[in-house]
Design goal:
Radius of gyration: 23 Å
CATH architecture of the largest domain: Alpha-Beta Barrel
CATH superfamily of the largest domain: Aldolase class I
CATH class of the largest domain: Alpha Beta
Oligomer: single chain
Shape: elongated
Amino acid sequence: MLIEPQIKELIDRALAEDLAGGDITTEALIPDEQQGICSIVVKEKGVLAGIEVATQVFYRVDPKVKGDIILEDGAKVEPGDVVAKLEGKAASILKAERVALNFLQRLSGIASETNRYVEAVKGLPVRILDTRKTTPGLRSLEKYAVRVGGGENHRMNLSDGILIKDNHLAALRNRGLSIKEILAQARENAPLPLRPAPLLSLRGAKRRSNLEVQQTQIELEVKTPQEALEAAEAGADIVMLDNMSLEDMREAVKLIHGRALIEASGGITLDKIRAIAETGIDFISVGALTHSARALDISLELGSPLQP
């Protein structure tokens, strides 16, 4: 999860956006002294993520609001499940409602989508990764939701590892460099040690020493099985197979023969992910986990506190 100052900063920015000029509807109609109690209710099946962030929104609007989290992040939810209850000024609840639900619906949607991909490859020795295709400013939260859904994070930012992609290669090949020369230059200039990331797990691959890999995690994107072989022979720690057919993936796995970890990326969809996993690759990175996840349907139902 995020550290508390990060959560507060994100929440405050979202509230400033929504309450820039106040809530003129609530202020015109709801007396300040009126009390309310609300339930946050799930409307469809999924995986819950972001409930603590959502409840914090209410507390930031009004510290006197009292909350009770009923279901924690990671819970498998069904229509009708009540995940939290809050009590306080009705006006405060109404002012916080939309921002709280936006966080909760978005993060639960990502966790739910991730879980569908994870379940689709269940039983196979492959790991589902996210990408940097996240909502600007919300990466930490969205990558947290991926973990809640059972996936793992690739790079959090550009300092988390050297990933040589097609445009890097294009620029370097314009200078006449081969894949072997490119990898050698990356290894020579890499800051040491690079921060360990999930991709460092060797999982039985026939690799150089763990220490060497931890010091210089370098991944290279390739388009063909022959390029994959060249990258592995040149010492890439991870070879990313970009938009390859299943046939080409199987050929690349055969050619690499355990000399590097292998990641599949590009055009990954739920209907074909198991077939991709069965080619023998180690990781599958899926941009859709964050850039295309549909928000989970969750609502807030407001009532009045029980009278003594």
